[in-house]
Amino acid sequence: MSEKKLQAFIFDMDGVIIDSEPVHSRVKMDTFRHFGLDFDEARLKDYMGGTSGLIFRDVVAESGRTDITPEMLTDYKHEHYLEVLKSGGIGPVAGTRELIRALHEAGVPLGLATSSHPPVMNTILDSFDIRKYFTSVISGGELPESKPNPAIYLISAERLGAAPESCCVLEDTANGILAAKRAGMYCIAFHNPNSGEQDLSLADRVVESIEEIKVPELLAQFAT
Questions:
Q1: DSSP secondary-structure letter at 140?
Q2: Of 74, 123, 170, 193, which has the highest C-beta tally within 10 A?
Q3: What's the pTM value of the predicted model, to 2 decimals?
Q4: Are 170 and 12 in contact (CB under 8 A)?
């Protein structure tokens, strides 16, 4: 029987690696205004952690309009969000790059499982110079269903050669945490104040800062 250990660590991206939720919210609201759609901004928190396609499908359906499609809104939103990213105005969440490097140096395989559009994911990986640390990167835009569906985490584990119960996930939204737990993984929730009022109660651990996550302690926890 092999020694029990942490076989993989899987990161969400928005709100965990990049503090982008406020920008996502702004760009989504700009998108609704561009297409003449009414939307209560307070509802955005219910969709955090999922793809833009989900919220746009719901809003277009509610509007009853036939002259627009969710895909039109999604394309508009992604184009303008990329413009913001490439302007260099968004930085990484404090402590995340250090955690990524520490896990890599400890020999823990790393995965990225994000609901963001592939071009956005790739822009961030390259802008922050962290692509080299990840063995697996998956965008929810490539999958039929977004978080809270656990598929993105189960596929990540498979690509990393890890058993789900030996994986640790870092998330910041209720949808992401639910996806991780449905996948049978240990989940650390980062309480990011910019991610809105999220229910983090299903997480195995909640941290107020990424710096609270210490790699030696995590390795020891999984070895017990």
A1: G
A2: 170
A3: 0.83
A4: yes
